[in-house]
Amino acid sequence: MSPFLGFDWFAKWLVTSVFGLSLDTNLGASVHFFLYDVPKVMSLLLVISFVVGTLQTWLQPESVRRWLGGRGTILGNVLAAGIGIVTPFCSCSAVPLFIGFLKGGVPLGVTFSYLISAPMVNEVAVALLWGLFGFQVTAIYVGFGVGLAIVGGYVIGVLRLERWVEPFIWQMEAGALDAEGHLPAMRLGERMRAGWRSSREIFGTVWPYIVAGIGVGAGIHGYVPAELIVRWAGPGNPFAVPIAVMVGVPLYANVAGVLPVTEALVGKGLPLGTVLAFTMAVTALSLPEMVILRKVLRPQLLAVFIVIMTAGIIAVGYLFNALMT
Q1: Contact at 8 Å (CB) between 320 and 147?
Q2: What helix, strand, coil percent values describe the chain, rounded to 5?
Q3: Which of 47, 78, 315, 323 is most enclosed, with most CB atoms within 10 A?
Q4: What is the pLDDT of residues 69-100, one digit of tens each?
């Protein structure tokens, strides 16, 4: 039984009894989609961000820098991609940690594995994907996302492109822990309060994007003809995946904001690989992230990152489509 049945019942009651709309009309379907998804996504966001925020008190950026600083080759990429899963899920909020890892001595390729993984595959993505599409789709998405982070970071590391990082990064000093170089001791209650503060901060930052994303998804769900979307990016168009990526890049949303749109597009008949390629492009190749990264990376390295990510996301989209048919 779905844990969200209560939200669905309440949304249907509001639509039919309070607003007097039929669920079979375009407006009724859109309003139901919006009223059902908003509390569902918000509750997932609050619970998961609280749990992860509490766990993150054991995983501080300074200690991660020291831990990853001596790692190299593929092991460091694997570890960094794993760390990205439990750290900030907005691409723009991941960039400061990316900078901190660089100045703390973490190899360039390893830091890129983190940068790719953090916005694309994280606790919120896993929770929302599981709630919207089930375990199988979630597992495949996580596997592809982590694999792309590992391979992309490894390739950048092999190319040895440190010369294309802005010089001031290497001149910055890494911050310290406490006077003895350790994390300060915290009791469980303090950790939970820190988790609640983290949850409130995340919620306060992203809720407008979530509401906007659900609003777009509701409009697509109720009003955009399925035939139009399928003709534009359906299984009959061999260029559907790169088109979806190109459409996603100029947009900006974290994964919590874009997944309701993903759900609506899948409901309209788009192949799941095409839709997830769009999702990956929005979360990992957004223009705001590129603008921030340009402050620390020279254009050559930024271009390499974009090319690797774009090629990887397109490959994932085609592969996902092939596996799900």
Answers
A1: no
A2: 80, 0, 20
A3: 78
A4: 555 568 888 888 887 777 655 555 566 667 66
Q: Name, in order, each residue with C-beta under 8 angstroms of 183's C-beta and a sequence gap of 6 or more.
A: 58, 60, 62, 63, 177
pLDDT score, position 277:
83
Eight-state DSSP code of residue 142: H
Amino acid 77 reads N
CB atoms within 10 A of CB 182: 10
Nearest to 101 by CA among 89, 84, 121: 84
CA distances from 15 to 29, 129, 217, 223 (A): 9, 26, 17, 16
Quote the CA–CA distance of 41 and 33 in Å, as a whole number: 12
DSSP bridge partners of 297: 165
Joined tokens for residue 135: 């375990």
- Check: CB of residue 262 under 8 Å from CB of residue 275: yes
Closest listed residue to residue 152, CA positions, set 92, 120, 110: 110
pLDDT at 97: 67
Go through 52-68 and write b for each residue having 16 or more CB atoms within 10 A of its CB, e for each that does not. bbbebbeeebbebbbeb
